Amino acid sequence: MSGRKKAYAIGDRLRIVWFDYANHTNVALADATPARCWTEGTLAKEADKYLALKTSQYIDAKGEPEDEGDFTIIIRGGIESIEKI
């Protein structure tokens, strides 16, 4: 990504296609592969090695968003594509 301007920022809603870790037991080596998947959410954090997508956020009694929620952590090395939606 270095040298290119990113097309997304913190707070943007993204759809990321990525490869998740997978454990395979008693299978042929050819079938032992990472799991290709996609996740949609709001970009909550960027770190050198990963992105954190917020997929749900809790709200308080006044209807205001809290800082707690559900997050999917995606390792940068496994990302196939990122689309701003």
Describe how the helices and strands are arranged.
Blueprint: E1 13-20, E2 35-46, E3 50-59, E4 65-75, E5 79-84
Antiparallel strand pairs: 1-2, 1-5, 2-3, 3-4
Describe, in plain words, how this protein is organized in 3D.
There is one protein chain. The protein has 85 residues and is mainly β. Strands 4-3-2-1-5 form a five-stranded antiparallel β-sheet, with no helix packed on it. The chain has no helices and five strands. It is globular, with a radius of gyration of 16 Å. Helix content is 0%, strand content 55%. The protein has one domain. The model has no long low-confidence stretch (mean pLDDT 93). Strand 2 and strand 3 form a beta hairpin.
Helix content: under 10%
| Overall residue-averaged pLDDT value | 93
Rg over C-alpha atoms, rounded to the nearest angstrom: 16 Å
Q: Total number of β-strand segments?
A: 5
> In this structure, how is the largest beta sheet organized?
5 strands, antiparallel
Elements, N to C (H/E): EEEEE
- What is the domain total for the residues? 1
- Basic shape: globular
Q: Which stretches are poorly predicted, pLDDT < 50 over at least 5 residues?
A: none
Distance separating the two termini: 20 Å
Strand content: over 45%
Strand order of the largest sheet: 4-3-2-1-5
How many helix segments? 0
Task: Give the class from helix and strand content and strand pairing.
Answer: mainly beta
